[in-house]
């Protein structure tokens, strides 16, 4: 149902973003990949996505912590493909440390990637979506857009801010054919989660197994990780015509995490 649509997914070289790119391509969308990674792996994935969708997927390199890279990304898509109909602002990073020793440069970088990038992408992409009378903007937020955890100050702040940005943008575009929503996962098994295990082990003085059972899955009542395919299925639903009246929402997919 996405034939003739273009879809930019930031952070699509890994994890949730890659699963979203695959789901969109499977529905015929022309997918634009961006993110860091091994060039050979990215090229392999780009070809696989092209085959899946039947249209040529693009990879456009960008460091979304830089405002100008976000703008350039959207402009290049506009020049080459006539605009991004779907934008999934998904790139995100994490750093785990107490506020007293939280490195200031990590604070700045997390806010730049997790919060300011979606803002710059909106600023660049929304005018064309408005002109076309159709658009879907989805931000990958987190349960940390509505609750806090210790040692994740920058992440919690960025994701709370992102939830506010999504609501504001939804109000500014309501009735225009554009919808703007957030998806808020609990713990999803991806490199982002795997990579924070060593820091959490150090900060809390725990073994790897203790971090998994006492920190990660202890917070998630289902006791199970969310899968990237489950997140992608929700993103795909938000792109459907049936979802035209869903805007300004923030969907938890968290195994009951925020129900406590
Ligand atoms: P991941 O580490 O697997 O992927 C992150 C992606 O972002 C990668 O493609 C990476 O290259 C890209 N990226 C990071 N910094 C970038 C930059 N400066 N410029 C361009 N690309 C950059 O992580 P993931 O778990 O798939 O996370 C995706 C999103 O989901 C993030 O916003 C994250 O906060 C959110 N999230 C993840 C979980 C989880 O449990 N994994 C839970 C809640 C929310």
From TrEMBL:
MF terms (GO), sorted A to Z: 3-hydroxybutyrate dehydrogenase activity
Keyword Oxidoreductase: yes
InterPro entries associated with the record: 3-OHbutyrate_DH (IPR011294), KR_dom (IPR057326), NAD(P)-bd_dom_sf (IPR036291), Sc_DH/Rdtase_CS (IPR020904), SDR (IPR050259), SDR_fam (IPR002347)
SUPFAM superfamilies xref list: NAD(P)-binding Rossmann-fold domains (SSF51735)
Domain Ketoreductase: 5-186
Keywords: Oxidoreductase
Transmembrane segments: none
Family classification: Belongs to the short-chain dehydrogenases/reductases (SDR) family.
NCBIfam families reported in the protein's UniProt record: PHB_DH, PRK12429.1
Record protein name field: 3-hydroxybutyrate dehydrogenase
Organism: Acetobacter musti
């Amino acid at each position: 149902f996405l034939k003739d649509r273009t879809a930019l997914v930031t952070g699509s070289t890994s994890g949730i973003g890659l699963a979203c790119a695959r789901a969109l391509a499977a529905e015929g969308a022309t997918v634009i990949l961006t993110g860091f990674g091994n060039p050979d792996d990215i090229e392999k994935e780009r070809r696989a996505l092209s085959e899946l969708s039947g249209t040529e997927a693009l990879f456009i390199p960008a460091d979304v912590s830089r405002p100008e890279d976000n703008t350039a990304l959207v402009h290049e898509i506009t020049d080459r493909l006539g605009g991004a109909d779907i934008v999934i602002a998904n790139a995100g990073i994490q750093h785990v440390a107490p506020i007293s020793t939280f490195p200031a440069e990590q604070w700045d970088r997390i806010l730049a990637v997790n919060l300011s990038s979606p803002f710059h992408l909106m600023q660049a992409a929304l005018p064309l979506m408005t002109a076309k009378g159709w658009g879907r903007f989805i931000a990958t937020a987190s349960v940390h857009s509505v609750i806090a955890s210790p040692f994740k100050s920058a992440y919690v702040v960025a994701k709370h801010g992102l939830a506010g940005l999504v609501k504001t943008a939804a109000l500014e575009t309501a009735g225009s054919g554009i919808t703007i929503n957030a998806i808020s996962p609990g713990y999803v098994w991806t490199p982002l989660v795997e990579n924070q295990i060593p820091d959490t082990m150090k900060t809390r003085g725990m073994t790897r197994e203790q971090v998994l059972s006492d920190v990660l899955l202890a917070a998630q009542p289902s006791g199970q990780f969310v899968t990237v395919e489950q997140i992608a299925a929700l993103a795909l639903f938000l792109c459907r015509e049936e979802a035209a009246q869903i805007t300004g929402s923030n969907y938890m997919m968290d195994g009951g995490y925020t129900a406590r």
